[in-house]
Design goal:
Number of helices: 5
Strand content: under 5%
Oligomer: single chain
Structural class: mainly alpha
């Protein structure tokens, strides 16, 4: 049983006790009303019972006040338990997020490496095609190679997440300015730094001082 569940159980038990106490108070008040006249007009037995009821009601009133105080305290304990549980759940999510952020970093690093290798291979293939031309082979022409390379790029690009492909499709491919150039790892390092600060904050970790 979690701390929240324990507090909820305590609250229910106290509320049940209070309800029983209120019911008992009503019963005592009704009984007092029934014996009051006789008790005050000389009936010894009724007088004795009235005195017992009055004493019980005095104790009962104190019991009800103490139950109200206990219920209030239990409610505060429940709020604290719920806040602690919410914090623990949030920190668990933050810990999971940290693992994901690190994994994304390694995936983008892998993408950078394989893109670099792929483009080096493509440039090397272009060099070999030029060697064929120098040896007197007109086929494939530069136009044929260029068109098929474009189709090959498009084939790979449409395999990207749809919103990535949409961005490429609608924005078009233009020669990037120096400020626009970046690797996957370069842009992710800035994003992951922001995420890491948020994760550390949610985990309750103190930020590292920059030397």
């Amino acid at each position: 049983m979690t701390e929240v569940e324990k507090c909820e159980t305590t609250n229910r038990d106290l509320e049940a006790k209070r309800a029983a106490c209120v019911k008992r108070g009503t019963e005592l008040a009704d009984e007092r009303a029934n014996v009051a006249l006789a008790a005050h007009t000389g009936n010894v037995k009724a007088r004795k019972r009235l005195d017992e009821i009055n004493a019980t009601i005095a104790t009962h009133g104190s019991e009800l006040v103490s139950l109200d105080a206990a219920i209030k305290a239990a409610g505060e304990s429940l709020k604290k338990a719920e806040a602690a549980a919410a914090l623990e759940a949030d920190r668990k999510l933050a810990g999971e997020a940290r693992v994901i952020v690190d994994r994304i970093e390694s995936l983008f690093a892998s993408a950078d490496l394989h893109f670099k290798q792929a483009f080096e291979a493509l440039k090397a293939a272009d060099g070999r095609i030029e060697e064929l031309h120098q040896l007197g082979f007109a086929f494939p022409t530069a136009l044929q190679v260029r068109m098929n390379v474009r189709f090959a790029f498009m084939t790979y690009l449409v395999a990207l997440p749809k919103y990535w492909w949409n961005e490429i499709q609608y924005a078009g491919v233009q020669y990037p300015s120096p400020a626009e150039r970046r690797t996957f790892s370069q842009f992710w390092s800035k994003m992951s730094a922001s995420l890491s600060r948020e994760i550390a904050n949610r985990l309750g970790e103190k930020s590292k001082e920059v030397a």
